[in-house]
Amino acid sequence: MTDSRQVKLKPGDTIGILGGGQLGRMLAMAAARLGLRCQVFSPDPDSPAFDVVLNATCAEYADVEALELFAHDVDVITYEFENVPAAAALVLDARRPVLPNRKVLETTQDRLAEKDFVTKLGIGTAAYADVTSVSSLREAIARIGLPAVLKTRRFGYDGKGQAIIREGDDIAKVWTSLATKSAILEAFVPYEREISVIAARAATGEVECFDVTENEHRDHILKISRAPASIPDALAAEARNVASKIATALDYVGVLAVEMFVLANGTGPKVLVNEIAPRVHNSGHWTLDGASVSQFEQHIRAIAGWPLGKPVRHGEVVTMTNLIGDEINDYEKWLGVPGATVHIYGKGAPRPGRKMGHVTEVRPPLDK
Asked: What are its E.C. numbers (predicted)?
């Protein structure tokens, strides 16, 4: 197997992308600008990423023959979502470099393994406990207290696979409703704001972080991101250091997002890590129009073995607004807004909670 440090693509080479959603679409578009081809593998025939690549493979991730043919056609493989089946990653990893390394998936696909990993680095997280039954859930609540958040250990996103437990709730009913035998209980964090750091790491060990982003969620789905976050410079530096430390400890190659809570205590605000996303991330979409290099180009550079860019924010403040569900039907109203850029993902019919596009607004620096 080719070592990740030996990957050095040249224009005209081909990147394989697992997953055909909007993230895969934007990765392929960034690669094309750099003269690199992409081939997308997705089981969904309506994948929006298929629209922007010449070659695509529509097959199930369990289709070993299709995976082998896909690997034969590309020079390096990456992914747009972290829940790539382990068996598929194993098949591909034996044939082509998979970046970020599939071992990263073993850590980040499991919330408990991820929390243990972060804690061992000496980085703060909410208090947590492994839960496998109603009785172990009761024991965890006795240690951690309420309110608390019960989450499935795998396959949760945008608020799916989790439930807040409060005093007086029927614990057995909550456990049954989650429909899992493997969960994690996390202490509820009374945070001041939610932030994220988009970091890129090259195989050489170089790390570049974008400005810390402040995020606003509605119905558990990211609605608005603003860069830079309204936090002190020292806290922003701490957040970037946390993301850099995590990327380095994972021996990561590519772009990842580290979501964090900012909370106040007796000694001033501090950050706790909430989750790691081993991929380009919704909260980094502002970089498409608001920075000298986007998170998507940065990821392509990293996995291609090219030098990382030095991210420079274009405006005083850059805002990204997700267009969710029927909001996409009002895209025209954004087209005349000064400093706004509209991105439409080319998905099918809108439905509640579905991310259909986003708008980036760049506010120029104030005259001095």
From this structure: 6.3.4.18
Tell me the pLDDT of the chain (368 aa) as tens digits: 344 447 999 999 999 999 999 999 999 999 999 999 999 999 999 999 999 999 999 999 999 999 999 999 999 999 999 988 989 999 999 999 999 999 999 999 999 999 999 999 999 999 999 999 999 999 999 999 999 999 999 876 655 688 899 999 999 999 999 888 899 999 998 899 999 999 999 999 999 999 999 999 999 899 999 999 999 999 999 999 999 999 999 999 999 999 999 998 767 779 999 999 999 999 999 999 999 999 999 999 999 999 999 999 999 999 999 999 999 999 999 999 999 999 999 999 999 999 999 999 999 876 54
DSSP string, 128-150: EEEE-SHHHHHHHHHHH-SSEEE
188 is in an annotated binding site: yes
285 is in an annotated binding site: no
Q: Look up the CATH superfamily of 127-187.
A: ATP-grasp fold, A domain (3.30.1490.20)
Residue 194 annotated in ligand binding: yes
| Radius of gyration (C-alpha) of the chain in whole angstroms | 21
160 is in an annotated binding site: yes
Q: Is 111 annotated as a binding residue?
A: yes
Q: Is this prediction's pTM over 0.90? A: yes
d(CA 231, CA 225): 14
The CATH architecture to which 193-363 belongs is 2-Layer Sandwich (3.30)
